[in-house]
Amino acid sequence: RKLPWVSICHPAIVEGTKRFITAVARALKGSPALAYWVMGGESLYPTYSFPGRWADYSRNAILHFRAWLGERYGRVEALNAAWGTNYKGFEEVEPPRPPGRDLPSLDWHRFRLHAMAERIRWHYAAIRAEDKRRPILSCNHGDLRRLTELGADPALYASVSDGFETGQIIVGDDPLLFNLLYFRFFSSFGRPICPARLAYKLPDPKARGGGRSFTPEAVRRYVYECLGCGAWHVGLVQWSGSLPDGEWGIKGTPAFLEARKVFAEILRIRPWLDRSWPVKPKLAVYLPRPTWALWGFRPAWLEAHRELARRHIPAEFVYDPQVKRGDLKDYEALLLVDAPAVPEAALKAIYDFLQRGGTFLVGGKFAELDENLRLRKGLKLPGRVVRAKPQDPLRALRELLPKVERWRPFRLAVSPSRKPVFLEEFRTVKWAQRNLAEDMSGKKSLGQTVRLPGPVRSILISTPTYLKRCEEFGFILRVRMGGPEGEVIAEKRVNPPIADNAWHELKIPRDDPPGTVYYIEVIPNEDLPPRTLGWWGRGEDIYPEGTAFVDGRPVAYDREVVLKIERPLPEEAAVEAFLLSDGTNPALVLVNVTDGMAKVEGVMDDSLLRDEPEKYRAVELISGSEVGRGLRFGLSLKPHGTAVVFFERQIERAKVERMASSLKPAIERLDREGFLTP
């Protein structure tokens, strides 16, 4: 059925929003409590909330699309040549419904990204007309990997704002390393990143929206991650209250006391870290927009992000505009995996990068198509090209990763008392594929078979309650071996109240080998009324390794089941590490992500020091204790503990005063010319 949605291309929205923003900026610009402006709210296209429902096909949006095509191609003959069409004028062009994997669809995705950025640019202009000095940041939220559904292109947003306000929601065991992923999306632009709405959701089926807010461990971990990633401002969501998607308030919870402690620590160590910034990494990871738009955020890109973080190898995502502009000169190495479509100008920039002595590490499909999806042949590159042999992107990445460790600016030896493991989520149906909220009422049982890809710690299902809270009815959740008649190996009763779309987790008390088939079964109450409880799935058979069942009989569709697969990690992954520097004194922010103690011994690269190593001492700032001299340090981290190791240059006070005096005129000039923020 059709659902209404605001069109960002409608003149009433464009002009009305401008008037509203102007009035608000005029009213609040005199407030001393205002640090920066955030534009746009949580902007998105309806496709993000309703997967598969592409938009905007309103009259104004189509007129906007045609005008955009006119700017891109100039003449309709050029568009016809590129698209293989025979339009007489741009007024005949219609957007694809739905988009596919062809050039008209790619152009439509490009237009939608530019339209959203254009909206932000109008907001920026309206605020800047009233306030000439405060930073104006774009508002970023949701899963940024879903580029075309959300409409948020990091490079385009960077071009129309002074930085990035963010509202990332980290969930449960954080299998995506989601907070770090958010920073990696934006770090290469050198603009302020402000997670002012940093959120954590601990799954709880009895909580509103299926989850509760920060735990003490989550507060410490994610705030210190933000510190290590160079956040300009951090705020937790939220002080009190709840919303339909979760109980976010930390007031009166153990997390509140930990938040008070963590922020007090940061205020105490601020004088040492003031003016510090993440050290520019030597490695860049390139995400070409044509590949991202048509094929989505590639699994190998996510795996590269996670593996680089676990191996303590700093790296930034870079995008088409930066690559074309020549920004690769700021890096020593470039990593690109699974990118079938790469723009011609970006390929030339990679060629130039290699001729200047850079190293290019590439795996999987590479640049088979250009930005107009024309086939390339006979591609040759000069210089240091490290090509992975496997064609499978993930296998190619695993071959390349050891070769990038040479660009790691510090080395850590980590000895954890508890070995780190990664709980990888395997899904029979992806969240974006869900379109069936199957009602449990009137059924004796519902089930789904699933083949195990590895050792399973637990299984999860999600239950819609049709926009209300189920107060009286529950169900039995079981896991059987093989099928509906198999041995029961795990079972629990899920009692009310049950929030809408709550997740229900069932621990698996045994280890079964890969390839084992589990049967996930739900037994609802016999008197369950219609549209009270359901089980999410997809109304067609898309999971090849299993099928759905109703009352013990197979049906031709699939239900959503999430398996938490336990993967062992190397010992170094027990501790996250982030490198900062003010240009003279480097610092390492360390975060223990395990439930056990972790002993850490480290050595810094001497290129990070401005003076001889013997003139530095390593101080752990939170405790104030000396932990090393010169390039080396050693300490122990408590379970979920944090540390900040500061390499303090020993220098005479008189010399510092002379340096400060010589810099004062230049700083005053920057302030007069408007380069410094308030």
Describe this structure as you would to a colleague:
This protein is α+β, with helices and mostly antiparallel strands and 678 residues long. Among the domains are: 283-408, Class I glutamine amidotransferase (GATase) domain (Rossmann fold); 422-568, PHR domain (Jelly Rolls, Sandwich); 571-651, Immunoglobulin-like. The protein has 16 helices and 34 strands. The chain has a 6-stranded antiparallel β-sheet, with helices on one face. A 6-stranded antiparallel β-sheet has the order 20-19-22-17-24-25, with no helix packed on it. It has a 5-stranded parallel β-sheet with strand order 10-9-11-12-13, sandwiched between helices.
Briefly summarize what is shown.
This protein is an alpha+beta fold and 678 residues long. Among the domains are: 283-408, Rossmann fold (3-Layer(aba) Sandwich); 422-568, Sandwich (Jelly Rolls), CATH 2.60.120.820; 571-651, Sandwich (Immunoglobulin-like), CATH 2.60.40.
